[in-house]
């Protein structure tokens, strides 16, 4: 029989692997608003900063992440209207690591992309 500590690490490792697999699946099946924003963020498209998509941070899969400025960008669909408390708690966990979180609705990305990009640039420029 394995020591208890060994079993716990195995369970955690499986969880991490599952998250990474799910993140990979989500990169393939992006929503239309995520794809629109990604087309602007990819290839250092916003202020020359490198963003990655569907990244696991603190056990959560975030839509977009820029390590250079510690910034997470989330694009929220209608499902987020019913999980406000969960999203707030999730953001608090991520922010506790020094990472800022910006949230935009699908509608904002689709119908007001220029404002979304300005808001992202403003946050990046505000960071030291």
Walkthrough of the structure:
The structure is a single chain. With 128 residues, the protein is α+β, with helices and mostly antiparallel strands. Helices cover 52% and strands 20% of the residues. It has five helices and four strands; from the N terminus they run ααβββαβαα. The longest helix is centred in the first third of the chain and has 25 residues. The N terminus is likely disordered.
Salient structural properties:
alpha+beta, 128 residues, 52% helix, disordered N terminus
Secondary structural class: alpha+beta
Helix count, DSSP H or I runs of 4 or more residues: 5
The strand line-up of the biggest sheet is: 1-2-3-4
Distance between the termini: 51 Å
Helix content: 40-55%
Radius of gyration: 16 Å
How many individual β-strands? 4
Beta-strand content bin: 15-25%
The ordered string of helix (H) and strand (E) elements is: HHEEEHEHH
State the major sheet.
4 strands, mixed
Per the principal axes of the C-alpha atoms, what is the gross shape? Answer: globular
Which ranges are low-confidence, i.e. pLDDT below 50, for 5 or more consecutive residues? 1-14
Mean pLDDT comes to 82
In short:
52% of the residues lie in helices and 20% in strands. By secondary structure, it is α+β, with helices and mostly antiparallel strands.
Write the layout of secondary structure elements.
Blueprint: H1 4-28, H2 32-41, E1 52-57, E2 60-66, E3 71-76, H3 84-95, E4 100-105, H4 106-111, H5 113-126
Parallel strand pairs: 3-4
Antiparallel strand pairs: 1-2, 2-3
């Amino acid at each position: 029989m394995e020591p208890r500590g060994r079993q716990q690490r195995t369970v955690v490792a499986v969880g991490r692997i599952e998250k990474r697999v799910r993140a990979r699946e989500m990169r393939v099946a992006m929503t239309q608003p995520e794809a629109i924003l990604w087309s602007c963020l990819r290839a250092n498209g916003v202020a020359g900063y490198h963003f990655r998509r569907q990244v696991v941070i603190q056990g959560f899969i975030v839509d977009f992440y820029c390590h250079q400025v510690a910034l997470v960008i989330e694009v929220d669909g209608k499902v987020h209207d019913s999980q406000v408390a969960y999203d707030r708690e999730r953001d608090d966990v991520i922010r506790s690591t020094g990472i800022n979180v910006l949230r935009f609705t699908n509608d904002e990305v689709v119908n007001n992309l220029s404002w979304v990009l300005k808001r992202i640039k403003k946050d990046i420029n505000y960071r030291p």
